[in-house]
Amino acid sequence: MKIGTIDLGERPVMLAPMEDVTDQSFRQICREQGADMVYTEFVSADALVRNIDSTMRKLTILSGERPAAIQIYGRTVEAMVEAARIAEAAQPEVIDINFGCPVKKVAGKGAGAGMLRNVPLMLEITREVVNAVSLPVTVKTRLGWDHDNKIIVELAEQLQDCGIQALTIHGRTRSQLYNGVADWTLIGAVKNNPRMRIPIIGNGDVTTPQRLRECFEQYGVDGVMVGRASIGAPWIFREMKQYLADGTIHEIDYHEKMALIRRQIAESIDRIDERRGITHIRRHLAATPLFKGLYNFRPTRIAMLRAETRAELEAILDNVEQNWLGKDPEELRDMCRDEGGAAVNADM
Length: 348
Description:
The chain is of the alpha/beta class and 348 residues long. The protein has two domains: 2-246, Aldolase class I (TIM Barrel, Alpha-Beta Barrel), CATH 3.20.20; 254-333. It is built from 15 helices and ten strands. Strand 9 (200-203), helix 9 and strand 10 form a beta-alpha-beta unit. Helix 4 (77-89) runs parallel beside helix 6 (119-132) and helix 7 (152-161) packs parallel to helix 8 (185-191). The radius of gyration is 21 Å and the shape is globular.
């Protein structure tokens, strides 16, 4: 699959853009673990135009992340064109336009998925951004605004006519937010439309290597974007790529997984500061499947998510690695029995 002249190989798997998740460290780790392309956090066009420091920092791309895309969102032609030019100066491989974010503070103001209610403006923004930059421009959007307005098949052709070089489709409407089940049938309908010439990338509920391969085979998409399943689990890309290659899953050692979590913590603290770095990484700690099913783990999970210093958090992780990970479930049950001989309630 190619986006412009950027060759991502056959059946590429990409890291989806996610606010407060896809920072520099996480993007680079996911690339090392097999993601074929990564996307920045959402970048506000208005904030770029106003030169807001926190937003400008989102444009920094490390060499180990490439190929990488900067994703911008906004609600006016002027701001989006200027933001695209600013983003181009940061030298990403791709500029992606977000027409899919469903959250109220974005879509409710007409940006992100809010553009699904103003298709003429969406197309004008797309056309003008394409004309304003020399980099490949892509779009990420949803099936439509709500169940009664699933416009993606027609919209995909219109966006292609604006000059975009790939289209990513999340298989939900804006009204669904992230609820329900992603509908891949319409993603497949776009891909199988004989008038479509650009690559189609599917997104939504791809949480396992098996589901990944099913989406490629059943719907014929050119690429797949993985989002929430990667939070706290960057190794999912290695598992997915391995399964695509030979149909097997090689279980990654839990010590290696823990090392990746610890690296994220360290790099988050180094990039920001101790207090805010730890706060930033809590989302990964809360979501990681590494601790899923550990017997009687709830009190430790709470302590881990309340830790305020690096030393405190590292001590908790040391305890987890030494006393929980790799232990037989029955052994853990014996360890957690109370003085009366009854098993302590489990956090399963």
